[in-house]
Amino acid sequence: MYHLGAPLWPGVGFLCLLLAGATWAPPPNPPDPKFERKAALLTAREPEEFLCFTERLEDLVCFWEEAASAGVGPDNYSFSYQLEGEPWKPCRLHQAPTTRGLVRFWCSLPTADTSSFVPLELRVTAASSGSSRYRRIIHINEVVLLDPPAGLLARRADEGGHVVLRWLPPPGAPMASLIRYEMNISAENAAGGAQRVEILDGRTECVLSNLRGGTRYTFKVRARMAEPSFGGFWSAWSEPVSLLTASDLDPLILTLSLVLVLILLLLAVLTLLSHRRTLKQKIWPGIPSPESEFEGLFTTHKGNFQVGGLVVPSGPGVSLLLWPNSRL
């Protein structure tokens, strides 16, 4: 028994060391979520392209996506770059899957080699054959992709029914005075779709007019570096904000209109009261009384035609004499 078990101890110890090493080894760094969002934004606009972007002119990331294949990884490609007048330098490739079922290869250049306004040549070749897959010449200042603007606020203007919008430049953006913005305006239940308004370079507020009263609007803003010194891509849209615009009826005009209506109604009532007798006679005319034909009919005879002899007109030139207790 002892002779059979003794040789197993070295193997078991070695296996334990392997397991411990795997447990203690730091996990691979996952891709930066912000980089993932920006890469997805660019590939949605320009799929199947070799793309590069910088956030602050002190960095540069280049990448491409392709269908996942067994056994294909960063070692199958060679990425190199060259600044004007300098030798070629290698750039280490990384790999990660995407949410669309593809695989993304990317490389991040050192800060020392990210010079603006200088031509930068990029080259990707197959490691086995040396054949070229991608080759581009770019200027870093022309591939800027900023973060979305922050802190968008909307409020009603004090007068005129306008809407005032304010926001902050993208966090960490270089040269905020050279950033241009675009505002997206959409009305609730509107059939015409959203409208877009471009803002002058460096402005971080705008005043909107000609909006429909009593309507809920949603606003978003995005940014990009201004040409011609810079170029690049529109950022993602900021977080949206909503606002219900004021009614088209001015409260002052509405109040004055109500006062005027009340005054007119009061004048009409006073006019009716001053002519109430005339109106009463026209609406309810009086019934003719026989008192004018039979003197003393109501005062003396209490309306009794059978008392005394009363002459009753019965037609032109004809009269009827009534005697007490007589029958017609």
TrEMBL record:
Its main location: membrane. GO terms for molecular function: erythropoietin receptor activity. Pfam families: EpoR_lig-bind (PF09067), fn3 (PF00041). It is a single-pass type I membrane protein. The chain crosses the membrane at residues 252-273. SUPFAM superfamilies: Fibronectin type III. The keyword Cell membrane applies. Residues 148-248 form the Fibronectin type-III domain. Residues 1-25 form the signal peptide. Gene3D superfamilies: Immunoglobulins. One of its GO terms (cellular component) is external side of plasma membrane. SMART domains: FN3. Keywords: Cell membrane, Disulfide bond, Glycoprotein, Isopeptide bond, Membrane, Phosphoprotein, Receptor, Signal, Transmembrane, Transmembrane helix, Ubl conjugation. It is found in: Cell membrane. The keyword Protein biosynthesis does not apply. Forms homodimers on EPO stimulation. The tyrosine-phosphorylated form interacts with several SH2 domain-containing proteins including LYN, the adapter protein SH2B2, PTPN6, PTPN11, JAK2, PI3 kinases, STAT5A/B, SOCS3, CRKL. Interacts with INPP5D/SHIP1. SH2B2 binding inhibits the JAK-STAT signaling. Interacts with RHEX; this interaction occurs in a erythropoietin (EPO)-dependent manner. Interacts with ATXN2L. Isoform EPOR-T acts as a dominant-negative receptor of EPOR-mediated signaling. Belongs to the type I cytokine receptor family. Type 1 subfamily. This is Erythropoietin receptor. The lineage of its organism: Eukaryota, Metazoa, Chordata, Craniata, Vertebrata. The gene is EPOR.
